[in-house]
Amino acid sequence: MLPEMEAKMGKIHGSKVEPGIWRLAPRKFILEAHVDGCGRVRETCEGTLYEARTRLEGLKKQIREKKPENGRSLTFEKVRDVLEYYKEHHFQFTPRYKASKSIYQTLLKELGELPISELSQDSFNTWLRTIETTKSVHKRTPRPATINNYIKIVKSAFNFCQERGSVATNPISKMKLRPELNIQRRIVSFEEFMALYREVPSHLQPWLEFIYKVPTRRGEVISLRNSEDISLSEQKLYLLDGESKTEEGRVFCIPSSMMDYFRNIPPESKRVFFRPEQTSQGMVYHPLRGNGVLQALTRAAERLKMKGINVHMFRRTAAVNMIRSGVDIKTVQVAGGWLSLEVLMDRYLPLGDEDVKKAVDKVDVPIDRLKLSA
């Protein structure tokens, strides 16, 4: 037996009769079926040695077909094994990991020792309901988006391991996500933007102007690299695969009014947006941090006595401004990197009475003109 398998599944205490069969009692055996490249499964069996051999061959056949009975684990026995394997081989290399690290740790702590055979959609849903009613240190209950992250991580982990033959099935494969009702109705007016622009530190002004004009996410825009991600000739910024929330590459168009800024980015700066600092060794260009820009914007809004201002609000503002300027909805979706028009329309563009009035005015024809045309 491989050392790592002993660590994962536990060492077998019994007398080994032959490969894959250990005797615990006169008519009780432990069977361990292993097929290279497909997986491994262990179970107890009562009966004669001949019956144990027959059962062992049946288990091997199930592994080859990847159809084990009763959703039995092929390699891993506990949820912890699945989560740790997923993190080690995939999850920690994705942009989502940093934002979901605390959720991952909670899953390990709360569900890590749970046997895979006991995990089901009902049991996981019951556990999630306790999470939904538990207040955080900020005295708030988790939002639906946070609960969905729990579901996504566990579901993705089991899918990842199932594809590699480490588990038989995904016990929560049919579990649906919670409806996310975080509809944003407020936008930043031009007057508010100008007031904030004058209030934030000068090194944040280009960043603030960019997110006001381009529907982007906070983490995406501050991660843009200097030189590698910029094409001044095409007036575009490139975000590579794996660097966005959706893990798909994106293209941002540089506003013409900001071309001078992008042409004059110091070559020593590793990022497009940065914080310069004069030191004894010379000028140092620090990359912007997500929490740093959030705190700076929050403080500026508080000094101006503006309520409800946050970084993500600028994403919706840019999208609404595009729509009001006559840009078609599909172009807005591509510009902002939304996966579906449904999310964009329902969550980001619940337009108000002002937009309805403008729409009516566009098709409003005076009665006199109608009479003349008749």
TrEMBL record:
It holds the Pfam family Phage_integrase. Transmembrane segments: none annotated. Keywords: DNA recombination, DNA-binding. Residues 183-361 form the Tyr recombinase domain. PROSITE patterns: TYR_RECOMBINASE. It comes from the Bacteria. SUPFAM superfamilies: DNA breaking-rejoining enzymes. GO terms for molecular function: DNA binding. InterPro entries: DNA_brk_join_enz, Integrase-like_cat_sf, Integrase_catalytic, Integrase_recombinase_N, Tyrosine_recombinase_XerCD. GO terms for biological process: DNA integration; DNA recombination. Gene3D superfamilies: 1.10.150.130, Intergrase catalytic core. This is Tyr recombinase domain-containing protein. The lineage of its organism: Bacteria, Raymondiibacteriota.
